[in-house]
Design brief:
The chain has 15 helices and 15 strands. With 415 residues, the protein is α/β, with parallel strands linked by helices. The strands form three sheets. Strands 1, 2, 5, 6, 7, 8, 9, 10, 11, 14 and 15 form an eleven-stranded mixed β-sheet that branches. It has a two-stranded antiparallel sheet with strand order 3-4. It has a two-stranded antiparallel sheet with strand order 12-13. The longest helix has 16 residues, at 78-93.
């Protein structure tokens, strides 16, 4: 082992902040996952006249004022409100006093697909109706993508900090977490708030609808009768720090970030590539120092489209042979775009801590061309050591993350 490898720090997750259609906060999210609850409702964010079907996984009852102390909620778009709320919850869940957080060199990295496209939708409508000279200046100011990360900095009053918004579409949450992992491991920062956030918007719903990939009722990943995605929204922010730091302050540890893999095949604007997905998994395993046999379950990208599920399942079988249980929480919370893999990472961390595998709901019959155990409809108790979280995005942006129990070596030697 090189001197550099010896000095690299182990990175752990000590705080989770989640805003989802299953609930706001760790407990509601965990309970929703365990019970296999569906967050599907009729879409209300915009006028859906003319669409043959318009279900979604919108968040109802969310009051940003309950989670924001410094920044006025109306200064932020909906996605930034989600991001800020999740970041504050993550800090609180980690038991990290804000005074301590502010004294440390920090990173804020937030992944997104749409940023504040909901506000951009409104600005476009205003422009068509009355011209750009009548734009609402507040809405125009808050429409920039950078607000998803810089608003966290403002809200938590961080000063010694790097803030970045990562726009790698539906893999962006894992990208942002990987960025934080590297920064802590190499000693560039002491603490990182990383994840993803997105809000339902007309632009993305319409785009997927025109592609013929919006399901009419529910999302059914890996099911023989699957018909597509349901758009969702929310945010997942993880507070990460070194294992040494977490132990020194007696923090509860959800999981250790073992490593990740990234690649971009640029094979096709929307069609996934099996070989590239397989290579990304192999890269993640090598970087994390694990073998396929050590992975206890896979949180798949699992969108519920015909092309994604069969291609992803094929790539998993290519790497694993006989795959471990392979689930998709999108069956419950929909496709939350840039927040998807961040929320799945939070689900994986909770699964490791609580000892269960989340189910894939709405399941009737597994597509034999997928051929995976998707843990249909009911959560499964399990003692877990290593879990894998897949994130796949348009244009071939793939990101695979490996999480594990931080005490797994001790547990293995004790057995």
């Amino acid at each position: 082992m090189s001197e550099q490898q010896q000095t690299r720090r182990r990175v752990v997750i000590t705080g989770l902040g989640v805003v989802t259609c299953l609930g706001v906060g760790v407990e509601e999210f965990r309970d929703g996952l365990r019970s296999g609850r569906s967050g599907v409702t009729p879409l209300t964010s915009f006028d859906t006249t003319g669409f043959a079907h318009a279900n979604s996984c919108e968040i109802t009852g969310f009051d940003p004022a309950e989670h924001m102390r410094r920044v006025a909620p109306e200064e932020l778009g909906r996605a930034s409100q989600f991001s800020v709320a999740a970041a504050r919850m993550a800090a609180e869940d980690a038991g990290m006093p804000l005074e301590r957080l502010r004294r440390q060199r920090a990173l804020v990295s937030v992944g997104t697909t749409d940023a504040e496209s909901r506000d951009l939708d409104g600005l476009v409508a205003d422009q068509l109706a009355t011209g750009p000279e009548h734009w609402d200046p507040v809405r125009a100011r808050r429409a920039t993508a950078g607000r998803l990360s810089t608003s966290i900095v403002r809200e938590l009053e961080l000063t010694d900090v790097e803030a970045v918004t990562i726009p790698t579409a539906c893999a962006a949450g894992n990208y942002a977490i990987g960025y934080g992992f590297d920064a802590i491991r190499e000693g560039d920062v002491e603490v990182a708030l990383c994840g993803g956030a997105d809000a339902v918007c007309r632009k993305t719903f319409t785009g997927f609808y025109r592609l013929g990939t919006i399901a009419p009722e529910v999302c059914q990943p890996f099911d023989l009768d699957r018909k597509g995605i349901l758009t969702g929204e929310g945010a997942g922010i993880l507070l990460m720090e070194s294992l040494e730091s977490a132990r020194a302050r007696g923090a509860r540890i959800y999981a250790e970030v073992l490593g990740y893999g990234l690649n971009c095949d640029a094979h096709h604007p929307v069609a996934p590539d099996q070989g590239s997905i397989a290579r990304c998994q192999e890269l993640a395993h090598r970087n994390a120092g694990v073998t396929p046999e050590e992975v206890d379950f896979i949180s798949a990208h699992g969108t519920g489209t015909k092309a994604n599920d069969v291609t992803e399942a094929g790539a998993i079988r290519q790497v694993f042979g006989t795959p471990p249980p392979t689930v998709s929480i999108k069956s419950m919370i929909g496709h939350t775009m840039g927040a998807a893999s961040a929320l799945a990472s939070a689900a994986c961390a909770l699964a490791l801590t609580e000892g269960f595998i989340p189910p894939t709901i709405n399941h009737r019959e597994t597509d034999p061309d997928c051929g995976v155990d998707c843990v249909p409809n009911e959560a499964r108790p399990a003692r877990l050591s290593v879990v894998q979280n897949n994130a796949l995005a348009f244009a071939g942006n793939n990101a695979v993350l490996l999480l594990g129990r931080h005490d797994r070596e001790v547990a293995a030697s004790a057995s």
